[in-house]
Design brief:
The protein is mostly helical. It folds into 2 domains: 53 residues, no CATH class; 32 residues. The protein is 56% helix and 3% strand. Helix 1 packs across helix 3. The longest helix has 30 residues. The N and C termini lie far apart (82 Å).
Length: 118
């Protein structure tokens, strides 16, 4: 049994409510800089907390933005590619292995042709 939106119980009817999947929030570099400037201006007790509540942010996120701002300014606050970093040596190794295998097959074919011609 399931309950429909009217509060009535209906038998045999599946629950068809679709729940939206949560998405990670993304912030632009301009927004990050604006918030950091506002945090830097805050002097009184509780002003930073009020700012964070108004913007819906956590203090740890603002701390991370401060660390990013130090070395690169606006570039440091830009979007970063997530996931494992590409290893150029691993890509080159894979390319060389493929080429080696291709050449090995050609050599086997050439040797087979030579043996047949003898």
């Amino acid at each position: 049994m399931s309950q429909n939106p009217n509060g009535k119980i209906s038998e045999g009817m599946p629950d068809t409510e679709v729940v939206e999947k949560a998405r990670r929030r993304q912030y632009t570099a301009d927004y990050k800089l604006r918030v950091l400037r506002e945090v830097d201006v805050c002097k009184g007790t509780g002003e930073i907390g009020a700012l964070l509540r108004r913007e819906g942010l956590y203090s740890s996120l603002v701390s991370k933005w401060r660390q990013q701002r130090e070395p690169g300014g606006l570039e440091g606050l830009g979007a970063h590619k997530r996931g494992p970093k590409a290893d150029p040596q691993a890509a080159e190794l894979a390319r060389l292995k493929r080429e080696n295998e291709r050449l090995r097959r050609r050599l086997e074919q050439a040797e087979l042709i030579i043996d047949v011609q003898k």
